[in-house]
Amino acid sequence: MALSPSEQARLDSLRAARDLLMSGRAVAEVQSGGRSKKFAQANMDELTAEIRGLEARTSPRGRQRGAVTFRFR
After folding, report:
1. What is the pTM of this model?
2. What is the span of the domain harbouring residue 10?
3. Is residue 46 in a domain?
4. Confidence class of residue 16 from pLDDT cuts 50, 70 and 90?
5. Does 68 reside within a domain?
6. Residue that wins the pLDDT comparison between 64 and 27
7. How many domains does the chain have?
8. 41: closest CA among 12, 55, 20?
9. Where does the chain have alpha helices with state H?
10. Are residues 56 and 63 in contact, defined by beta-carbon separation less than 8 angstroms?
11. Phi, psi at residue 70, to the nearest 5°?
């Protein structure tokens, strides 16, 4: 399932904010759809969780799994 244009823009903003935080900047702010959220080093996990949530919506079955393997004895 593809993301709407506004959801894709939010995902791009969140990824950019994560990159800013990882590069050593103390605070990153994301604005989307009239909402604003600030992320600091302390809530990097929250930022990553929000990114993963949006990325999971793009997958047809949610979480992608590995290939099936068979074992012969």
Report:
1. 0.53
2. 5-58
3. yes
4. confident
5. no
6. 27
7. 1
8. 20
9. 5-22, 44-58
10. yes
11. -115, 145
The reply to whether 10 falls in a domain is yes
Distance CA 9, CA 12 (A): 5
Q: Which residues of 13-23 are buried (b: 16+ CB within 10 A; e: fewer)?
A: bbeebbebbee
Question: What's the CATH number where 36 sits?
Answer: 3.30.1580.10
Residue written as token pair 């702010």: 29
β-bridge partners, 28: 39
What's the sign of the alpha-carbon dihedral 52, 54, 23, 43? Answer: negative
Residue 35 in any domain: the answer is yes
Q: Nearest 5 degrees, angle CA 61-CA 54-CA 5?
A: 105
- Please name the residue that has the structure tokens 């600030």: 38
